[in-house]
Amino acid sequence: MAEGTTSGGNAKLQFGEKSIDLPVVIGTEEEPAIDIAKLRGETGLITLDEGFVNTGSTTSAITFLDGEKGILRYRGYPIEQLAANCDFAEVAYLLIYGELPTADQMHTFRDTLRQHTIVHEDIRRFFEGFPRDAHPMAMLSSVIATLSAFYPDSTSVKDPQQLHVSMMRLLAKTPTIASYCYKKSIGQPFMYPKNDLDYSQNFLRLMFGTPAEEYEIDPVEVEALNLLLIVHADHEQNCSTSTVRMVGSSDANLFASISAGIGALWGPLHGGANEACVAMLDRIRRDNGNVEKYVDMAKDKDNNFRLMGFGHRVYKNFDPRAKIIKAACDKLLAKMKINDPIFEIAQKLEEAALTDEYFVERKLYPNVDFYSGVVYRALGIPVPMFTVMFAIGRLPGWIAHWLEMRNCPTTRINRPRQVYTGATERDFVPIDQRK
Ligand code: CMC
């Protein structure tokens, strides 16, 4: 039986003359699953589940979410409590090591991160090769993969000490690298990290400071950034996390696996939705705020337009992350005395969609990406950097899952099967005889 599960009896499968019993396993939150490990061996059958809608790829003890009830917990702790009480580094520790740190453990963790914030000078020069208008996600994924070239002393996946160093390097250097993606695009000098600052303070200074003057840290901005990073920190087996686990299952190093996850996150159906969402809200604003027109477009099956930041594969009630971010939005904009027309459009659109039968029937609610862009805008983060922000937040989750996958004694290389639907065997035809 899979580790951490209890037995839930058997499920019977009848196929032609053959009947087999498949064990049902139950997770700690009473989620039942049929274990089909013996299915092909005993029946010759495989399962077909496009988009993995019904397929559990693994057991996992990191994050629990209940899409019907709108519950999200990291290592058992409700996201609302973590968002209200922790900073991002503390949540990163919790996700990676499984427990909230003691004061001593947290002190050591922060100290270790501080030792690794600077990147190799040649990595700074690496940015000279990118075009100035390169998308920051393109730069981020390639520079993260490049860490394996600059730090080959921490690429062995079998050496716990090297693994530890590669985790620390990734967590500490990613904000530095992310800020260089931004600085490159605006032609400003790259900043060196300042190690007496904490994680989020340091990042804001790397992004918005210049060598010409002292950067003043605004605690309101730090609080908002911490909150955003925390709510993005993990979300169980989503597309990018599954990618990180899959790449890692081939024994690829952590840098390479995370770089692949960044590629998966970039898509507009996943993390890229935050960028697409603000572009959509801005489009509606320029179209005289006509939200009804866009709700109608999203419902029209002949139009491929979708409401960005709406809907979720798992949440069918509400996305608890969206609730937290909307509340933070209200607070932040009031504190900063910002009147953002995009926030007003977002609220009008939400109201129109939530009272529309199409959205109600399909249980489509605002997701994490719907309001996050408004907070990023208030912090001065430009739209092309939004998905980079998501990546910084998701990093501890990716690392935790990669480690869990590596430490699980039953992990095998991830290698799905397929049902082949192409041509059956035929003979080669020389080119001069082809029609
Ligand atoms: N606007 C309009 N219709 C929608 C939307 C939307 N945003 N999302 C889903 N639908 C409809 C869809 O057309 C389908 O209708 P029907 O049953 O008539 O064919 C039904 O709702 C079910 O949608 P689906 O595409 O089968 O659902 P899925 O679970 O495969 O996709 C999703 C989930 C998030 C990709 C999808 O809701 C979507 O494209 N949303 C917009 C992009 C977005 O905001 N993505 C961020 C997700 S949260 C952040 C993250 O974790 O990445």
UniProtKB/TrEMBL annotation:
Residues the record marks as active site: 312, 369
InterPro entries associated with the record: Citrate_synth-like_lrg_a-sub (IPR016142), Citrate_synth-like_sm_a-sub (IPR016143), Citrate_synthase (IPR002020), Citrate_synthase_AS (IPR019810), Citrate_synthase_bac-typ (IPR024176), Citrate_synthase_sf (IPR036969), Citrate_synthase_typ-I (IPR010953)
Coiled-coil segments on the chain, per record: none
GO BP annotations listed: tricarboxylic acid cycle
Signal sequence, renumbered to the chain: none
Keyword tRNA-binding: no
Catalysed reaction equations from the record: oxaloacetate + acetyl-CoA + H2O = citrate + CoA + H(+)
Molecular function terms, GO-annotated: citrate synthase activity
UniProtKB keywords: Acyltransferase, Transferase, Tricarboxylic acid cycle
GO CC entries: cytoplasm
SUPFAM superfamilies per record: Citrate synthase
Pathway in which the depicted protein is active: Carbohydrate metabolism; tricarboxylic acid cycle; isocitrate from oxaloacetate: step 1/2
Entry similarity comment: Belongs to the citrate synthase family.
Protein name according to UniProt: Citrate synthase
Name of the encoding gene: gltA2
